[in-house]
Design a protein that fits this description.
There is one protein chain. The protein is mostly helical and 397 residues long. Among the domains are: 83 residues, Tetratricopeptide repeat domain (Serine Threonine Protein Phosphatase 5, Tetratricopeptide repeat, Alpha Horseshoe), CATH 1.25.40.10; 62 residues, no CATH class. 79% of the residues lie in helices and 0% in strands. It has 21 helices and no strands. Helix 16 runs antiparallel to helix 17.
Length: 397
């Protein structure tokens, strides 16, 4: 509640209520500059910066805004610890996640649930933090509690079912998803999203027949869904229905798709079908398109190497297999070092290996984000410029 005797803060609050976040933040900073212990100004700055960060584009500006929100709330709790509440701890958890401090985020999330034992959002954030750390059982427990507190929340259904799937418990994911789908209009957008995960869960349980039914429901609700269209083709291919798979893949290609990953999968499936039909020259065309769209796809690289060998192009096949091994090694390194970095956020070596792997895999946006986080955490690191050069060179190739 804004105090009547604090006109500057009242003005900042008015700008916040009007949606003018930039002006509100600027006015809060001015107040804090002259009154460093103004708890109300710190609280408002934390809210404004956090909301602004969620709508910002790019990498640097959102991280800066999340950082300001985190600083404001931590400063507030230093001078007024009695003002601690679940929403502040939820915000601190998300801010810590954004800068890669997963253990710290987990600690804040736990505190948020203690302060707000009836807050579905607090338990959702705790579940997401636990999932980031690979603590699957904790993630499932927290998300289950969140869903109990908000049983009609489809996002929570999806998160919990996805955690079951990743925990090699697809039967639990399937039961949860089928129950949720039965409780809502069968042609809703949210149903399509749940059917998509149901499809993935059936695949995880090696049931391609039921997976096909699920993905057909996705397309029934959303016929122009490019992911659903190519997964439909993939499932038909998996079932040995090659002619139907080819037609489905061509239908997917006819959709207005800009996502390079989807374009890559469409070309891969067409290439694999052509390989099955022993149309090697045509298969090569499709497989090269797939790799052009997604150079780090191991399945496409392996299929291309096989097609090249079938056409007698052994030297290029060996070159592709060498690239395949490099990509596989980069993916293994990425997974290993991400696990280390989650529990040791100050591990510079692990973060450098993550950045190098991301560059090798062509994930330049993710590499840039890691470089930005590294610069903020270790501003004097002498290896930073070398990593920036490596990213710049990779982007120009």
């Amino acid at each position: 509640m804004v105090r009547a005797q604090d006109p500057a803060l009242a003005l900042a609050e008015a700008r916040f209520q009007a949606g003018d976040l930039a002006t509100a933040a600027k006015q809060c900073r001015a107040i804090i500059k002259s009154q460093p212990d103004n708890a109300n100004a710190l609280h408002l700055l934390g809210k404004v910066s956090f909301i602004a960060a969620k709508s910002m584009q790019g990498i640097s500006r959102p991280l800066q805004a999340y950082g300001e929100a985190e600083w404001a709330f931590r400063r507030l709790l230093q001078i007024s610890p009695q003002r601690d509440e679940t929403r502040i701890q939820q915000t601190l958890a998300v801010c810590a996640q954004q800068r890669g401090a997963t253990l710290e985020a987990m600690k804040c999330a736990r505190r948020a649930t203690e302060l707000g034992p009836k807050s579905s959002t607090a338990f959702r954030i705790l579940g997401e933090c636990a999932s980031d750390l690979g603590h699957t059982d904790d993630a499932i427990a927290a998300l289950h509690t969140a869903l109990e507190l908000d049983p009609s929340n489809d996002d929570l259904v999806w998160l919990l079912a996805n955690e079951f799937k990743n925990a090699a418990k697809p039967h639990k994911a399937i039961a949860l998803l089928e129950q949720a789908i039965s409780n809502q209009p069968d042609d809703s957008k949210s149903s399509a999203t749940l059917y998509q995960l149901l499809y993935e869960s059936h695949l995880a349980s090696n049931d391609s027949i039921r997976a096909l039914t699920a993905i057909e429901n996705v397309l029934r609700i959303d016929p122009k869904n490019p992911t659903g269209a190519i997964e439909h083709a993939s499932t038909l291919y998996r079932l040995g229905r090659f002619e139907e798979a080819r037609k489905a893949a061509l239908r997917a290609r006819s959709l207005p798709v800009k996502d390079s990953r989807i374009l890559a999968v469409i070309a891969l499936k067409l290439g694999q079908i052509l390989l099955h039909e022993q149309k090697f020259a045509e298969a090569l065309v499709e497989l090269r398109i797939s790799i052009e769209q997604d150079p780090a796809d191991l399945e496409a690289l392996q299929s291309l190497a096989g097609a090249l060998r079938r056409t007698g192009e052994e030297e290029e096949a060996r070159s592709i297999l060498q690239l395949y091994r490099q990509i596989r090694s980069a993916k293994d390194s990425l997974e290993k070092n991400q696990a280390s970095y989650r529990v040791q956020p100050n591990n510079r070596t692990a973060q450098e290996k993550i950045i190098r792997a991301l560059i090798t895999l062509g994930r330049f946006g993710q590499a840039e984000r890691q470089l930005e986080l590294r610069q903020r955490k270790f501003p004097d690191d002498p290896r930073q410029q070398g990593l920036i050069r490596l990213l710049t060179e990779a982007r120009t190739q």
